[in-house]
Amino acid sequence: MSYTSTMYHIIVRTHSSERTISEEHERDLYAYVMGIVDEVGGKLYRIGGMPDHIHIFLSLPANLSMSDFVQRMKTATSKWLKANPVFPHWSGWSKEYAGFSYSVKEKDRVVNYIRNQKEHHKRMTFAEEYRAFLEENGLTVDERYFLKD
Question: What's the Cα-to-Cα distance from 54 to each of 2, 4, 113, 148, rounded to whole Å?
Answer without folding.
Answer: 31, 25, 12, 17
